[in-house]
């Protein structure tokens, strides 16, 4: 079976972790500081704070920006439950909105229609696509860029994550850069970064307030720093795999919009079928040929479904949950693996 996803750990990554293990300092320490500086350089300034997970990063970013009881946070329904968890942890109220059918992201028109009064917006760059951050910022709401699936991507000359009031990243096992777990908050605002650090440092404080220990370890940070050093090569290889898949798509299937755009980081290659029956037929066809695929967001995972909201208010998210399929996309794929996936794709008759 060709795996849908698999971490790609090189000898240099192992050496970086071994160096930390031999240093005698494996909790939050110098390697975490190095990772934070890597992100400062990557995003052209500002400040970065590493944390224990992407969910923790979003929670603390919201806290630092002032989201709490009485605040409303707009979230795309076609995303993961971690967003809901982070918002509820702050005491704020989630406002679930639909997404665009082409790139699966938010735009200003959707926000005006479904969440014009939300004080905060979490703009998810779904699977590496570019959410309309400029349009969302123009709506005079606080925008947090969720770059958990788009690290290393850019649009034009703008690095994804660099435009919102804050950006959050994840180093989970299925992400572009992985440390097994881990997350990070970036902001141009020193005050926001200071509030994130204040929350992260759970003990040894003169002034007490309830905090969780959300620190990243140096073991995780070293693994992430090592992979960040080859981020552009990772992007180029993923783009090459995506280009091969695009050339093999049979008539009737389309890919997420913008997947071949310059600067795009393809975290997942998501195919859209005409309907649920043909999506399921495609999945069965690929699985029978030994190609692992997943439904990227199942219908029950849609955020409006979790909150038992009217599905009729979210027609695009409902349709995407029924018609999308994610193909293998990771650096462990050999050229032969990619050729096999392409051949199996070409053999499908929608």
Supply the key terms.
Aspartate Aminotransferase, domain 1, seven-stranded mixed sheet, globular, Aspartate Aminotransferase, domain 2, 350 residues, 2 domains, alpha/beta, single chain, 12 strands
Mean pLDDT: 97
Shape: globular
Going by CATH, the homologous superfamily of the largest domain would be: Type I PLP-dependent aspartate aminotransferase-like (Major domain)
Low-pLDDT stretches are none
Kindly provide the name of the CATH class of the largest domain: Alpha Beta
CATH-level-2 architecture of the largest domain: 3-Layer(aba) Sandwich
Q: Main sheet, how many strands, which sense, barrel?
A: 7 strands, mixed
- How many structural units, i.e. domains? 2
> Which topology of the largest domain does CATH recognise?
Aspartate Aminotransferase, domain 2
Amino-to-carboxy terminus distance:
22 Å
Computed CA radius of gyration, to the nearest angstrom: 20 Å
Number of E-type strands: 12
